[in-house]
Model the fold of this input.
Amino acid sequence: MNSLARQALAGLRVLVVLTVLLGILYPLGVWAVSRLPGLAANAEGSVVTENGQAVGSDLIGIDPVAEDPAHDPWFHTRPSAVARDLDGDGAPDLLGPADPSVSAGSNKGGFDADLVAAVRARKEIVAAREGVDPAEVPADAVTASASGLDPAISPAYAELQVPRVARENGLSEEQVRALVGAHTTGRGMGVLGEPGVRVLTLNLAVQAARR
Amino acid sequence: MSSTVAGLVQVGVLLVVLAAVYKPLGDYMARVFTDRGHLAVERVIYRLGRVDAESQQRWPVYAAGVLGFSFVSVVLLYLVQRLQPFLPFDFGRGAVGSGIAFNTAISFVTNTNWQSYVPEVVMGHSVQMLGLTVQNFVSAGAGLAVAIALVRGFTRSRTDWLGNFWVDLTRGIVRILLPMSFVFAIVLIALGVVQSLRSGVDVTNPDGSASTIALAPAASQEAIKELGTNGGGIFSANSAHPFENPNGWTNLVEIFLIMVIPVCLTRTFGTLVGNRRQGYALLSAMGVLWTGMLAVIWWAEAHPNGPAALLAGSAMEGKETRFGIPGSALFADATTGTSTGAVNSMHDSYTGLGGGGTMLNMLFGEMTPGGVGTGLYSILVTAIIAVFLAGLMVGRTPEYLGKKLGRREVTAAAVAILSMPTLVLLGAGIAIMLPGTPGYLANSGSHGWSEVLYAYTSASNNNGSAFAGITVTSPWFQSSLGICMLLGRLIPILAVLCLAGSLAAQKKVPATAGTLPTHGPLFSSLLTGTVVLVAALTFIPALALGPIAEALA
Done:
């Protein structure tokens, strides 16, 4: 017991010293290096600016809301399990933006009745919005991402939205398709991860093309 | 290129990189723990800590060091959380509640990093850096030290001395964990991970609405979170959050960091015991099980059977576009095969077989390849059981690496192995009988039971991942999971150090014709079989009611 108390006291002294090294010098040292040009923008969240105004992060997906749902000019992100309750029914909206000050998935299993109902409802909403058959809606359009902030959609979901976005913005489908291609990230080294279309910068590019 | 082919090449790239560093890092770690000199910064730590770095410790004193250090770590981490309002960078998040603070203190000190809180709302940057980042390092360092002490039990003879816990702890941190974390934190920032002291950034979205995007000093914690097989996210969505893991590159870097030390420690072990083939035998048992479980999880996620995934067209619920099925399955296998518990996809939304695979990975006892240090000592303990079983079959006194395995050694090994199943089955069994439990679950039926089983499995194995639909803020869950984490960590450590002490005291016996060779494929298969058999015999009934039932539905 004597030995345990002595070792605990030694542990307390060692821990205090290590806290200075690992809890102050290390993270602040990494922070200091991250101020270097080339790293600083990443370290502060890859913020995208337009006319000096921060309009989002290249890495964070926030679903845009159309002023008039009948004339929706936006490419949409994947659903978020923690979407804001804009329709005021007391539950997260099936589709729509999440609050990026937090992050979460639905944690529902494949047999969960609520999840099945949510997937079915989203399929119908997206199909109606795009004017296609529900069977054509890809999986990532109807499933909530792990973070609720997925910045990317699959090329298939982007392609599904091309005709509507082109029509509502007065652009040709070829123009919009070219923009989708320009905002598609492939796999790292051709093998790491999956291809994805970055929704925020794509929407900004569409708006710029429209002007 | 199809997703599957790209995914297979991705696994190949990971294995090539691990193979490339296996020898240099493994041998370097062996030198770290045999070097007679001290670095200047280490001398400072010893002087300020008033530690005699030249002294040696008997196993009870070494164990008292681990216990004492864990105890003051829990107390200090608890206080740091409770005193958050007095620290800078608290962003008005207030004192952390006592239940969360207790659970979190145990969780991070035991290298579990189970999280019953939402970091973006509860923990400010000072608590993250001063409290949680520090424990990310030292809990991994403590596991490493215990593993090295056990190896010394094999390499030394007729001695009571196992080394010095403070020296082993300090060296593991100063010479291995800290330099690697620093370099990889910078690499992660270069690839897009954030490292900010601000609480968030205000943006005006293209549609005119306003948002605040949470920021944190993530990269410095992300590097040690993976390298130290810790797993606690600085954001709630953990490595699924784009600021912690923004693309396919960071995903591979993080998986590499999770695997690298546990894998290379088998080389360290082989080098230290003077027979590298002994290390390869352990590594191949780890590798066979890791690869097998990867195949199970990947196949299951690519072939979902639940109506939600079938309706959607693929099991993308709870997965990120940039990782897809292969990148998610690979991460899930790596994080549960080690005791990391970081997630880049939500395991709760996995299929019955896929989620059951992650659970079984933990139920193997976290040794495929296991956590930093804990993986090595866990598989060595299992190797002792395997040698003992083989000895029973042929009727000889078993010996391993020149040490006889008598009653004391086998008892210690059995205690180390059986403590985890006891905690898992008792904890989950009691929890599911409590009338209030269904109210805390996000799913019902067999998947609800899986959430409970996963929680106690994760806590008792110091993994820290979750079927996160379970709400664990009730006093019962906070305290019982805390106790499982604590006992799941300390009982095996005490048993392992007792074992190390009794091995070191023995003289070496020369190998004879009757000695079971422990460096070839035969022993490796026997070891693999022992891991599987112990887990299967213990857990099949519990798994049958949860993931197996769901997989067959």
